[in-house]
Amino acid sequence: MTAVPALSHTQVAESDRAAVQVWLDECAAAWVTQDAERMFRMATDDVEWVNIVGMHWRGQAQVVAVHDLYLNTMFKGVPMSLKSIESIRSVGSDVVIAVVRWSIGQFSPPDGSTVPAADDRMTLVFRRTPAGLQLVHGANVQINAVAEQFDPSNGPPRPN
Amino acid sequence: MTAVPALSHTQVAESDRAAVQVWLDECAAAWVTQDAERMFRMATDDVEWVNIVGMHWRGQAQVVAVHDLYLNTMFKGVPMSLKSIESIRSVGSDVVIAVVRWSIGQFSPPDGSTVPAADDRMTLVFRRTPAGLQLVHGANVQINAVAEQFDPSNGPPRPN
User: Fold this and answer.
1) Which residue of A43, A72, B9, B35 is most buried, as measured by CB atoms within 10 A?
2) Which residues of A96-128 are buried (b: 16+ CB within 10 A; e: fewer)?
3) How many CB pairs under 8 A join A and B?
C-alpha cells in the first residue's frame, strides 16, 4: 500500500497538476487564436479577474467580453509563453490555488503608453467540479525586474 | 422559515463578511503598529503572498519576515486605509475569496525609486477553520489610475 503524500508547496495530487497544466495550455492557445471564450471556457459563471493594472471584472460574460476586446487589439500578435508553475496547493476539499509565471511581449494599451516586455505572476483559484477544475478567480501582477533584485527573500540585493 | 439566500457577488453569509472585516481591521492595525506577526496571525502555515511588484513569498515565516522588514523601513509612517470590500464569495464549503481596495501613501522602496500614492486591489483567499477564517493566499495589484479610465467594463474611455 502506497502512502498518500501530504499536500504542500511542492507536493500536490498529480491529477491537480495535470488539470492546471491543461488550463494553462488552453489559455496559451486561446491567446494565440484570440479566443476569449476558449480562455474562460473552464471558468465558473461568477469568475472574477484582476488584471495587471488593477482592473476588476466580474462574471464570465464580462471577463470574456473584455478579454475578447484586448485579445483582438492590444494583445494581437504579442507573444506570451508560460515560464513555470511556481506553486500548486489544495485548499480544503474544493479548491486548488496555482501561482504561475508568464512572459509577455511589449504591447501598447489604449491609454497611449507602451508596456515593455515583462513577466507576470498570476494567481489562479480553481474550484473542483464534476467537469474538472473551473477557474473562480484570477489576479495578475506584473513583475518589476528592478524591484525583483531587491526581494528580501532572496538575500542581499543584487543590483545590476 | 426563512429562505437561505444564494451566495453570489453581492450576497454572502454575514458571518463571512464580518470575519473578513475583522481580518482587514487587524491588517490595518498591524500596518500602523508595524507588527507583521499580527498582520499574519490569522493565516495558515503555508500562506503565500504576491506583492504589488510581483515578489512571491511562501510560508508564514517568510511572509512575516519580509513584511516585518518592510513595515519597519519603507512603509513606516506611510498612511494606509481601506476604501472598500468590493467582493466576497464562498467557494465550496471551505474557502472564501475577498477583493478589497486600499489607499496607500507615497513610499520609497530599496531600489531607489519613489512610488506615488495609489490604490491597491488585493485578492485575499481564506480557508475556513475551527479558529475562523485563515488567510491562505494574498495577491496585491497596484491600480493604474490612468489605465483605470480606459477600463472597458466602464463603457467608453473618460480621459482627463
Assistant:
1) A43
2) bbbbbbbebeebebbeeeebeebbbbbbbbbbb
3) 168
User: Is residue A3 in a domain?
Assistant: no
Q: What is the pLDDT of residues B88-138, one digit of tens each?
A: 999 999 999 999 999 999 999 998 899 999 999 999 999 999 999 999 999
Question: Is B144 close to A110, i.e. CB distance below 8 A?
Answer: no
Q: Does B105 map to a domain?
A: yes
**pLDDT tens track for A2-40:** 444 444 444 588 999 999 999 999 999 999 999 999 999
Residue B123's domain comprises 14-154
Residue of A nearest to B94 (CA): A92
At A49, list the grid cell. 479577474
Q: How many domains does chain B have?
A: 1
Q: What angle do CA B99, A62, A59 make, to 5 degrees?
A: 50
CATH number at residue A74: 3.10.450.50
Cα-Cα-Cα-Cα torsion B101, B102, B104, B108, nearest 10 degrees, comes to -70
